[in-house]
Amino acid sequence: MESFNLQQLTSDMNMNWTPVFAATVCGTGALILFRKWRNNQKIQKKILNARRRRDKSLQRAEQAVQQFKIQNPDFESSSIVSLSLSELTGKLQDGSLQPDAVLHAYMEKALEVNKNLNCSTEILMESVEQLTEINTQSKKGLLYGVPISIKDNVGYKGHDSSCGVVGNLDQPAVMDSVVVTVLKKQGAIPFIKTNIPQGLLSYECSNPIYGQTLNPCNLKKTPGGSSGGEGALIRGGGSILGIGTDIGGSIRIPAAFCGICGFKPTSKRLSGQEISSCVKGQKSVLSSIGPLARDVESVALFMQALLCQDMFTLDPNVPPIPFNQKVYESSEPLRIGYYENDGFQQPSPSMARAFRETKALLESAGHTLVPFPPLRLYEVFFEFAFKGVMADGGRTLYSHLKSGPIDSCLRDQAALLRIPGFIKKLLSVVLKRVSPRLSVSLKAGVGVGSIAELWRQHVNIEEYIDEVIAEWRRLNVDVLLCPMLGPAYNLHYSGRIISALSYTSLYNLLNFPAGTVTVSTVTEEDEAQLSQYTGVYGDVWDKLFVKAVKDGVGLPVSVQCVSLPWQDEMCLRFMREVERLTAKNSPKLTRKHDD
User: Fold this and answer.
1) In whole angstroms, what separates CA 413 from the centre of its chain?
2) Pick the residue with more confidence: 580 or 32?
């Protein structure tokens, strides 16, 4: 047996370990680089596979349209897609139009629109198979034979709800969402999924999987978000009715930017089951599922169709409140609260002018207008709305974003999410005098510090809602008229200006139904007045806002209509009145919108 040699052991321990250490470090570094490379390869493969699925669905749709044309030589899609929804449903019900002709007409138009705007994530070819089921059904469904577009995050069996993030790819829905199921029961045919921004919490419309969607009114502008693909497709004529979601303006902003109609119902008025999100579990600011369409009548028909026993049975969390047609069709004079400027974000010249013109039309029609400015908006926007969505410091959202490459339109936002909380607090102190709003936003972006603080925030939000409703009652108003963000931004500004969301996010926080109606277009005078725009604070957000909305002549401008919770029909009735008065006063706008 070899004897123990203490001197040799000591000599071995004192040897030069530098080469060994260097080799170990190099090996570890190489391993890390290899793992990063392999992960990047997996990410790129997922993205390429998603794009191939989309492209294959587009090719199959083109083949289906061509085959239908061969079998039906007299087929003409333009005469179908030019019909209003009420005209289309009438012809489908009386048999003068067949569902297969309508589906292929919209499929052809959607393919054409998508080539210019990149608004689709996938054509749902199951829609062609659904025609067989439709033809065996009775024509009792309110949306019998109507093709419908759905936002990417709305669950459809067998298809991804990506939310624009790589981590959600290759996870197809195992069942249809409740809203899709009910729409099918009402005879509707979901036929296309539409594009969104990465992570959904943006009012841009671009992601690293499917790319940038463009505004049909001006290809240099964004269609808005996060339901931007819906706004672009519907305004482009490729869909007559669509489903979006709204957590800070995500239905209303695309509707306004694209010049169509959008409606955010009371949260939970429609089922949210199987609707994907990147901030699930967040309860301070509520999301809603709602329609986008060419006009208010179409939006109302969508709500009427979904608020049925099938919805209430499939999702018992939805209150069994059928659509109140009597309230919607009422023509009684309204008492209308209003504000032209929320005191937080000065409206653009076109926003303010469109609002004043609409207010004048309502007054001349016999309605009563009562000033009703927002209460404590500065505190509410940062401490309740923004801090509520970012309660975890943005960790959940960022965990989704970092599953793949960050889209260029979200780089600023993602950079802020990466900053540690203590540095945000330090920056907040430094910027307090230079840029108060940016300072407060950084502090709010840290999120809440404890469960107790989160509960206090929920209590504060409930008390604020009670405060607003009490003021609503004191003024004895039926509805509220306010400006709507616009016109459409130049590309890549949306992720840099959170302040402008004050006009929309307030009503998600309050959970008040809200909808947009297009009432005007940007004039040369509006554009010229931008040179005098100073904003409320004159800070970086106010300066960026001017750059975002410039070169907007001819773009649509909207107003926003609001009502109390669960009075969705009252909000729609108000929207219908605004639309009627606008059409009467500006027939050229109506004709241009219809085109």
Assistant:
1) 17
2) 580
